[in-house]
Design brief:
By secondary structure, this protein is α+β, with helices and mostly antiparallel strands. About 30% of the residues lie in helices and about 25% in strands. Strands 9, 12, 15, 16, 17, 18 and 19 form a seven-stranded mixed beta sheet that branches. About 35% of the residues are buried.
């Protein structure tokens, strides 16, 4: 009996996807709900599980093809599988994981391919024994260390003649064409649309990070011990942003036709780097969360982004965005808004710079911050003052406690 596997409902307003990678090949054994194919939507990669246990049949679509919700992906043959041991796959399929073993996420599969690691030899530390990207990178590092130790022994035989392997032609130049992923195409389209639609403008300021760094250094150990998560700078900026957004509602609003939609809540999209590009999961009701709640939410999203397990629900909505280019060493930038949002806060690297304090030139850990906004909705005065509010709250964190 053949069971159909179809494209599932992918989320609100998402009607099609691209077949990213087949995880199971015809003739291989599959378990119920075991991922058999990865689909790339406009926002995330979605793994489709087997609708029954059995033997993988022929693929109905190839990698790279676009499919609509409800379209046939493949067939799974279930006849005799439960009672006939001989129905096991041929030797070529033996490396497939046993039933109940963890399937690899897209991010982990990419790491496995790049590192040349056999995933069956690596012990997973993720949920239910799933392999994480960190597991693969650790195994790859150990493999390299072992290779270095073994190198002297391997080098013992007499070296081959220098002319045995011809050298590559001097100055040889190569090109490689790689089709853009659906996610990258969507990122490009949305960012270009934001530039063409919104009246973008960016205002800048700089922040003395001394007080926040001191508070973090003083409480980070007890904070992590109590809450099980590290105290980072992002929670301070998220809380400071809430103060600014409450004082200047237009920065937290959006345009719909000729109407302005104001929000009495703060859902912050936090830009996170994922294997396939930048993604922006949403931390909900940030204005009601504690510092620990914000850090826990951000940490969980970061882990899911690295493993490629973010869902459409994780990405939906958002009233404001914070993007931290400082983690990559960026000194200053003009971030682009994330439509339909009207503003985005850009953070950058911290570096000691000379500043004047009480008539004296002193070194202070400074950070440039930028607020890009849609000038159709937000006036310059509002944007500049909102950014100044964030600056003041970071330089005097007590403001975050007394809502000032």
């Amino acid at each position: 009996m053949a069971i159909e596997v179809k494209v599932p409902v992918l989320g609100e307003s998402v009607s099609e996807a691209t077949v990213g990678q087949w995880l199971k090949q015809p003739g291989e054994a599959v378990a119920l709900d075991e991922p058999i194919v990865s689909l790339e939507t406009d926002k995330v990669a979605v793994e489709v599980g087997a609708t029954a246990a059995g033997i993988m049949g022929a693929h109905s679509v190839a990698e790279g093809e676009t499919v609509s919700v409800g379209a046939l992906l493949a067939l799974i043959e279930t006849s005799g599988v439960a009672t006939t041991p001989a129905a096991a796959p041929a030797p070529a399929a033996e490396p497939a994981k046993a039933e109940g073993a963890a399937a690899l996420s897209p991010a982990v599969r990419r790491a496995v391919l790049e590192a040349g690691i056999d995933p069956s030899t690596v012990k997973g530390t993720g949920k239910d024994g799933r392999l994480t990207k960190e597991d693969v990178l650790s195994a790859a590092s150990q493999k390299q260390d072992m290779a270095k130790v073994a190198a002297p022994a391997a080098a013992a035989p007499a070296p081959a003649p220098a002319a045995a392997v011809p050298a590559a032609p001097a100055g040889e130049r190569r090109e490689e064409r790689v089709k853009m992923t659906r996610l990258r195409q969507t990122i490009a389209r949305r960012l270009k649309s934001a530039q063409e639609t919104a009246a973008l403008l960016t205002t800048f300021n700089d922040v003395d990070m001394s007080a926040v760094i001191a508070a973090r250094d003083k409480y980070k150990d007890v904070f992590e011990k109590k809450h099980g998560v590290k105290l980072g700078f992002m929670s301070f900026f998220a809380k400071a942003s809430c103060l600014a957004l409450k004082d200047f509602p237009a920065v937290n609003a959006r345009l719909e036709g000729d109407e302005i939609v104001y929000h009495d809540y703060v859902d912050i999209s936090v830009a996170v780097s994922a294997p396939n590009g930048l993604v922006v999961p949403v931390v909900r009701d940030v204005d009601k969360l504690s510092f620990a709640g914000i850090e826990q939410a951000i940490g969980a999203f970061g882990k899911k982004a690295r493993e490629g397990t973010l869902t459409m629900a994780d990405m939906a909505g958002g009233t404001f965005t914070i993007s931290n280019g400082g983690v990559f060493g960026g000194l200053i930038s003009t971030p682009i808004i994330n439509p339909p949002q009207s503003a985005v806060l850009g953070l950058h690297r911290i570096e000691d710079r000379p500043v004047v304090r009480d008539g004296q030139i002193v070194a202070r850990p400074m950070m440039y911050i930028a607020l890009s906004y849609d000038h159709r909705l937000i006036d310059g005065r509002e944007a500049v003052t909102a950014l100044k509010t964030i600056k003041e709250a970071i330089e005097d964190p007590t403001r975050l406690l007394i809502d000032l």
